[in-house]
Amino acid sequence: xxxxxxxxxxxxxxxxxxxxxxxxxxxxxxxxxxxxxxxxxxxxxxxxxxxxxxxxxxxxxxxxxxxxxxxxxxxxxxxxxxxxxxxxxxxxxxxxxxxxxxxxxxxxxxxxxxxxxxxxxxxxxxxxxxxxxxxxxx
Length: 138
Prior knowledge:
Blueprint: H1 5-37, H2 41-91, H3 97-111, E1 113-114, E2 121-122
Antiparallel strand pairs: 1-2
């Protein structure tokens, strides 16, 4: 249930945006139809476009914070995982534990794969970018 919660939050934000955009377009079309019935075609056309555009923009603004929260959560999960690995090495009491922990941190920095198209962080198992859908080069 709580696995990959950051990605789930991002998907909910996308769904809410799409619903808001569809409602905005429908409101613009209803306004246009009402103005056509009254014989005000230019006013209806301009008003319908403005209603749709403003509604889509407001939907985007409303979900932007939720989407960003999902991204932060996803990145935080990765940082927690790396911190736990480093702590396990340090607690093991092995000689050179600090240098081994530094090696883990350095390798995590080096191994972070990014999408060549959008720069999103990729997991090793990803075949396609989760953000833009570009095929991952191996």
